[in-house]
Amino acid sequence: QVQLVQSGGGLVQPGGALRLSCAASGRTYSNLAVGWFRQPPGKEREFVAAISWSGGSTNYVDSVKGRFTISRDNAKNTVNLQMNNLQLEDTAVYYCAAYKQTIGDRAISSSEEYDYWGQGSQVTVSS
Description:
0% of the residues lie in helices and 50% in strands. The protein has no helices and 11 strands. Strands 2, 4, 5, 6, 9, 10 and 11 form a 7-stranded mixed β-sheet that branches. A 4-stranded antiparallel β-sheet has the order 1-3-8-7, with no helix packed on it. It is globular, with a radius of gyration of 14 Å.
C-alpha cells in the first residue's frame, strides 16, 4: 500500500507563491505517476497538473500554465507543485494522487486513473 503525505499550502496574497509537496511512503514503487487536483469551494474537483513516473512528461490545465510547475525527485519519492503568481481563483483544497504507471510515460489528467490520494492541503489566495 502506498501512502501519500502532503505538506505546504496556506494563505497568500494575489501574486504570491506557495509550494506543495507530496511524499510517498509505505510500499513505494519506482513507476508511480503523480497528479495534483483541486476542489474550489462549492465546486467539483478538477485536474491541475500531472507528471509521469520518469518525469519525462508533464501536463497542466490551461489556467495554470506558465504559473505552476510540477517536478519530482524520485530518490526522495517526492513530487512538488510550485505555484507562482497565485490568483483568487486558485483558492481550493489541493490533493496529490498517484498510480502505478505500467505502460507508457504519459502525464494523465483523469482522476479515475489514480489509486492513491493524499490528505489534502488548503490553499487560500486572498487580499
